[in-house]
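We modelled the chain as a single entity of 135 amino acids. Its sequence is:
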Amino acid sequence: MQINRLTAVLPETIHSPQYHAPRMQTNNKTPPKSPIELREIGQWWGTDPKKKKQIQIDLVGTPIAGRNYLIGSCNYQNEKVGMEELDLIRDYASVFRPGCHFHYYIFSKGGFTESLLQAQARGVVRLVTLTDLYS
């Protein structure tokens, strides 16, 4: 199992005192803070021992302390992302660190289905569109 630092610019939506991405928003809005203080942001890949297959998590924020992690998925496609994506990253998170607590983020170019928007309203996931990043 390995965590790689991302070399691409990450959105400020997940910034912390230890990581400051270059400002991408031009409307002077203050983006929301990360729910945890992050030590490192990167991606992760490993093997699911039950399914015996390789998995990759696009975005992993590791905590400075504790067992709360930030887990994210990035989708650059025109179609709306649905609950299947949330189910997938939940499954991957349980392989990454069993027994930990996760804050889920899904980034999408094409937007989100109504069921995923409802999950966000319940506080299950944080959804971020390109418009959120660049407006």
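As a brief sanity check on the tokenised model: The radius of gyration is 15 Å. The first helix runs from residue 83 to 96.
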